[in-house]
């Protein structure tokens, strides 16, 4: 599976450019459909375009099982990437989910609830600006009308991109029917920091996600000649932007948060023209929600003083994963592991967090990343750790779908 994916959307940097509803995304979606078909998993696509591959050998259909209180245990992640992203962020969770299903079947496990593998669409928000758009619309946390009006860097709207990908934009909307099938969600993900390296463990269980959001700062200016315009006559949009970049670092440092301006658009973008407009995007996060809010408030006030219009594009408060579920998985992993599984929080956003907010018992497993680097081609995971991740995920799925003997919980417990 890994070698199938290796070349899809690979950039010259060695990283990946796999953006929602592009040709690369289409190839990845076809690949996912093929992997489901090969395994006899029933493929469904929800109103948003998220893909689900269902494994249910019990009596009746998946919906019959759900009606009888046997809601599914779901695992998976996303296949899209940030610009020049690593190979693991997203795909490791999808590939591991499929591999874990294989492992359970080889071991003759008969789940008492349906199991599904998912590919969430547009997790990174790299093209249209809102992260986890697929799970947000699915769960009603992003208004479909707002999503459809989003534009990419070329001015293509989300609606146009859907149409080009063969989907009807009118179909886009929350999908409570699909969501009602989900009893529990476990997303495996490459770790995006170095905690597991320091702790000497290959796999961790997640506890929570830091509050995080994205803000757009539009600085106005006036285009003019870089040589003939006196300094005192200029209205240079870049100055406000520069203040935002330095301010973000300064205020975040003071408040114990992190803040990043990783994307900028300059108009008209000529070396010898004074910028008439600069748009910068701020990403702010931190362990303490109040401090993140205060950081953004300070930067907003500072930006407005420089003439900026500030628009919040997304905001996700602190997300706590289901404690009972996380603890149950930690116990499962501790049962056979040489090194007990640490419990880690993360500063990265994930579809699992969006599902958790929607009330789906959710948690994550993290796989050690020796570089500690992510959203970069340097992101990595050793094959042995990836296999440990698959084994851990399979153990967790087995426990959740068959009511692991050591927990004493019924099979529907984690899926309730
Ligand atoms: C998603 O990877 C994010 O946290 O930006
Ligand atoms: Mn990511
Ligand atoms: Mn991810």
Describe it:
There is one protein chain. The protein has 416 residues and is of the alpha/beta class. Helices cover 36% and strands 21% of the residues. The chain is built from 14 helices and 13 strands. The protein has helices at residues 2-5, 23-39, 62-67, 91-106, 133-138, 144-149, 158-164, 176-180, 195-199, 237-255, 289-305, 323-336, 351-357, 383-402, and strands spanning 42-45, 51-55, 72-78, 115-120, 182-190, 203-209, 212-220, 258-267, 277-285, 309-316, 319-320, 343-346, 362-367. Strands 1, 2, 3, 4, 5, 6, 11, 12 and 13 form a nine-stranded mixed beta sheet that branches. Helix 10 packs antiparallel against helix 11 (289-305) and helix 12 (323-336) crosses helix 14. The longest helix is centred in the C-terminal third of the chain and has 20 residues, at 383-402. The protein binds glyoxylic acid (GLV) and manganese (II) ion (2 copies). The site of one manganese (II) ion has 6 residues, from loops.
Descriptive terms for the model:
four-stranded antiparallel β-sheet, disordered C terminus, globular, nine-stranded mixed β-sheet, binds manganese (II) ion, binds glyoxylic acid, 13 strands, 14 helices, 416 residues, alpha/beta
């Amino acid at each position: 599976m890994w070698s199938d994916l290796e070349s899809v959307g690979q950039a010259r940097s060695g990283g990946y450019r796999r953006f929602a509803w592009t040709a690369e995304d289409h190839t990845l979606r076809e690949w996912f459909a093929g992997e489901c078909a090969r395994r006899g998993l029933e493929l469904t696509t929800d109103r948003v375009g998220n893909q689900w591959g269902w494994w249910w050998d019990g009596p009746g259909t998946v919906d019959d099982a759900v009606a009888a209180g046997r809601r599914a245990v779901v695992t998976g992640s996303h296949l899209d990437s940030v610009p020049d992203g690593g190979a693991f962020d997203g795909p490791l969770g999808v590939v591991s989910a499929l591999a874990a299903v294989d492992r359970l079947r080889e071991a003759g496990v008969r789940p008492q609830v349906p199991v599904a593998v998912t590919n969430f669409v547009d997790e990174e928000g790299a093209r249209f600006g809102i992260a986890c758009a697929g799970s947000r619309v699915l769960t009603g946390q992003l208004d479909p009308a707002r999503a459809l009006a989003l534009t990419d860097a070329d001015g293509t709207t989300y609606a146009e991109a859907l149409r080009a990908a063969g989907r009807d934009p009118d179909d886009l909307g929350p999908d409570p029917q699909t969501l009602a099938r989900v009893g529990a969600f476990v997303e495996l993900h490459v770790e995006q920091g170095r905690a597991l390296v320091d702790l000497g463990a290959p796999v961790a269980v997640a506890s929570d996600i830091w509050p995080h959001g994205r803000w757009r700062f539009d600085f106005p200016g006036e285009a003019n000649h870089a040589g003939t315009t006196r300094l005192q006559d200029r209205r240079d949009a870049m100055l406000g932007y520069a203040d935002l970049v330095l301010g973000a670092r300064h205020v975040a440092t003071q408040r114990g948060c992190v803040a990043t301006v990783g994307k900028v658009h300059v108009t008209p973008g000529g070396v010898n023209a004074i910028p008439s407009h600069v748009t910068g995007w701020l990403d702010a996060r931190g362990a303490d929600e109040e401090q993140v809010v205060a950081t953004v408030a300070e930067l907003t006030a500072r930006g407005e003083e420089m003439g900026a219009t500030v628009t919040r594009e997304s905001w996700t408060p602190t997300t706590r994963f289901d404690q009972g579920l996380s603890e149950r998985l930690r116990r499962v992993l501790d049962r056979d592991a040489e090194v007990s599984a640490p419990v880690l929080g993360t500063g990265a956003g994930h579809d699992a967090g969006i599902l958790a907010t929607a009330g789906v018992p959710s948690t994550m497993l993290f796989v050690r990343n020796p570089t500690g680097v992510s959203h970069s081609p340097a992101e990595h995971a050793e094959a042995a750790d990836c296999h440990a991740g698959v084994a851990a995920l399979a153990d967790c799925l087995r426990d959740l779908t068959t009511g692991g003997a050591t927990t004493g919980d019924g099979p529907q417990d984690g899926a309730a």
